[in-house]
Write a structure and sequence with these properties.
WD40/YVTN_repeat-like_dom_sf; Methylamine Dehydrogenase, Chain H; elongated; 2 helices; four-stranded antiparallel β-sheet; mainly beta; 718 residues
Length: 718
């Protein structure tokens, strides 16, 4: 009998491979990030990376590559898993729908061969004729792909001619291998080690029954530290050998050209990315990023090379020298991908991955050409961890990362938020959205900054500046909402409420756009507005310890603020809420809760009774939306731990008040309520408040007795 059960609560965050290509559409530039057994597909847009699809697999991906099949306009994806399974996948995208079609799938498992411990690789020749897989000692797997049929629909399966072919190779300790450009047959070069000595060799694939044939290479010896081969495409061709301290460029026609890497101390180069045929990015284990420039010879010094046996000649471009620049420091890269317009993705296995921009000029403050645009959290690799509880919240403290990327991470089980797009705004204090012209959806945004406000409107996929007559841009906005005068609830709400520290304003929108500010209100005490909440035609404003209840009256064309209540609280108000709830349902739920729940835990019993109260409560949970309810209570939170209070509307009479802890016991930090709200779950009414230290406090509300029930504290984990 099984004694344990486990489930993954966190997907892998370490990047093992990153690729770029035209996968979803010929006009789309995509970034594919592989994180162990998860594939994340992004669109590369002007605004940044946009996640469009993620696919969990039932196997770990060892390596992958994009390639363009014959007669296809989009790239196909090849993946190799740790189970020795392979697949070629293409993407079908229609609007927002994305489907994957398997062109070919097979197993290359070989029980008679010994699998490599590390260094798995797959490469495709420039003409997309073969895929060569390095997975076993002394053996390569060849996958013919030239005759793969083009899938007419997503159900089209594997071409029976695409059968993996096993080919023996003498070199067992292969370090790296790449296909080369400029050869009539598929030709690849490889670095191998023999008795700790690095050497290079070249093979081509020929014949109907593919076999390997040795190709002469005009390289006598290479640096012992050479670990990476970089193929150089036409018109220059050849390859680059990368060592720890030196790189060399080789072609068939010329002698090699070498250049030392400018570094204070030797550090192993771990990966590269192609920018174009003459520029390449190199990343080392210390996180330093280099740019390699292949500089062509002066055209006047290039000797013409006969193209045929006849007298017709042409000048072939050649590389004359190499320049290497240190660009700056990034996270330790596992995979580097050049996207476009100087933007580079640094995929890291040992630290946080980064999206960076390469600047044309060096920054004198950082002495770097690099600007970090975005970072992607990575909690792996985890060397050690400890589990503990803090205020009832289970947490993990992990020793994450490696080398300079080492860090301590606090991990909590909570809700994850994924960033889709960003707009850089300094000193941002708040943001609201509202329908400027539409009565069905929001199309404009209000951004509150220190000492000013900004209006933005969504135009297509871009945000543009907006001018709205009557809206105060020279003040910081505290609150915004779309409201209506009393008695005009069913009409489209054509009034925008803007609250600043100086007071309240009603601005015409939709059908009243262009009318400007239609009504104003200032505190009778001449004190600044500190916080407020609004709902429909009701507004509750806090000005220090003074609390005002206002009603929007009149007509949409001529609205007015009418004071309907006022009270003075013993302490200043920090936050206000007017969320309505159904009192009758809450009363029935309270009776049911008293009969079937623990009075302390507040957790609903699993035993259900067949009574009318439960049926009424369950049926009401899917009843009227909040917009059909009028607020009957206002909830306020007060500064410096003086607690929360529930007040009736419109008189603002205090129904109940409950204290909060004045400070955090462990740190001595004063507790300040930041936000408060009323919510109804399964009929029961709750009062929630969040404090500045990240604690969530909530109370059970019993409106029939005017009592706030047992306080429960919980630590938020976002």
């Amino acid at each position: 009998m099984s004694q344990f059960y486990h489930v993954a609560t966190q997907r892998s965050t370490s990047v093992t491979k990153a690729l770029t290509g035209n996968f979803t559409d010929p006009n789309d530039l995509n970034l594919l990030i592989i994180k162990n057994s998860c594939l994340e597909l992004y669109d590369v847009t002007i605004e940044g990376l946009k996640l469009i699809h993620d696919v969990p697999l039932n196997a770990s991906v060892l390596t992958a590559l994009f390639f363009r099949r014959k007669f296809c306009k989009r790239d196909a994806l090849f993946i190799l898993t740790h189970k020795a399974d392979i697949a070629i996948i293409e993407c079908n995208r229609k609007n927002d729908s994305i489907e994957f079609a398997t062109v070919m799938s097979a197993s290359i498992a070989d029980n008679a061969a010994r699998m490599l411990d590390q260094g798995f690789d797959a490469l495709v020749d420039p003409a997309a004729t073969y895929i060569v897989i390095r997975m076993y000692y002394g053996m390569l797997k060849l996958i013919p792909i030239a005759n793969l049929s083009e899938p007419r629909d997503p159900l089209n399966r594997v071409d029976q001619q695409a059968v993996p072919i096993s080919v023996r190779i003498e070199e067992t300790q292969i370090v790296d291998m790449v296909f080369l450009y400029g050869y009539a047959t598929p030709t690849f070069a490889l670095i191998y080690e023999d008795d700790m000595v690095a050497s290079i060799k070249m093979y081509d694939i020929f014949g109907k029954d593919p076999t390997l044939r040795s190709v002469p290479v005009n390289v006598d010896s290479i640096e012992t530290s050479s670990k990476i081969l970089i193929p150089v495409p036409a018109p220059y061709s050849g390859f680059i050998l990368v060592g720890d301290s030196i790189i060399c460029y080789h072609t068939r026609e010329t002698f090699h050209i070498s250049q030392y890497i400018p570094q204070a101390q030797n550090s192993r180069i771990v990966c590269y990315a192609k920018v174009d045929s003459r520029r390449y990015l190199l990343g080392d284990i210390a996180g330093r990023l280099y740019m390699v420039h292949l500089l062509p010879q002066d055209e006047k010094t290039i000797r013409p090379i006969p193209s045929t046996s006849r007298d017709m000649t042409h000048a072939t471009p050649r590389i004359g020298s190499i320049r290497i620049e240190l660009l700056g420091e990034t996270a330790i890269p596992e995979s580097i991908v050049y996207l476009d317009n100087g933007v580079v993705f640094i995929g890291s296995y040992l630290g946080d991955s980064q999206l960076i921009r390469l600047n044309p000029e060096i920054d004198p403050k950082t002495n770097s050409y690099i600007t970090i645009l975005e970072e992607f959290t990575n909690i792996g690799p985890i060397v050690d961890m400890v589990f503990f509880e803090n205020d009832g919240q289970s947490q993990l403290i992990t020793c994450s990362g490696c080398y300079k990327e080492g860090s301590l991470r606090i991990i909590r089980n909570g809700i994850g938020i994924q960033e889709r797009a960003t707009i850089d705004k300094e000193n941002l204090k708040g943001v609201w959205c509202f329908p400027l012209e539409s009565d069905t959806y929001d199309d404009s945004i209000i951004v509150s900054l220190i000492g000013r406000s900004q209006l933005l409107r969504l135009i297509g996929d871009d945000l543009g500046q907006l001018k709205l007559e009557g809206f105060s841009l020279g003040e910081r906005t505290l609150h915004c909402d779309v409201v209506h005068p009393k008695g005009h609830k069913q009409n489209p709400r054509p009034l925008l409420l803007q609250a600043t520290t100086y007071g309240l304003r009603l601005i015409g929108i939709q059908g009243l756009m262009g009318r400007g500010c239609l009504a104003k209100w200032r505190s009778p005490t001449d004190r600044s507005v500190s916080s407020l909440a609004s709902r429909g035609d009701c507004v509750v404003v806090a000005s220090g310890s003074d609390l005002f209840a206002l009603r929007i009256t009149g007509t949409p064309e001529a609205p007015e603020f009418t004071q309907i209540g006022n009270t003075v609280l013993p302490h200043e108000v920090a936050c206000v809420d007017l969320t309505p709830f159904d009192r009758s349902v809450a009363a029935k739920a309270a009776i049911y809760s008293a009969a079937f729940q623990s009075p302390v835990s507040g957790i609903r019993s699993s035993t259900k009774g067949n009574n009318s109260e439960e049926e009424a409560m369950d049926s009401s949970s899917s009843g009227d939306p909040l917009d059909d309810l009028e607020p009957e209570y206002a909830a306020v939170g007060m500064w410096m731990g003086y607690g929360v209070a529930l007040l009736t509307l419109p008189s603002l009479e205090v129904v109940c008040s409950e204290p909060l802890p004045t400070m955090v016991p462990t740190s001595g930090i004063a507790i300040l309520p930041r936000s408060i709200t009323i919510a109804q779950f399964e009929g029961l009414a709750y009062l929630f408040t969040v404090t500045g230290d990240g604690s969530l406090y909530y109370y059970n509300l019993d409106c029939s007795t005017g009592w706030c029930g047992h306080i429960v504290s919980s630590m938020l984990a976002l």
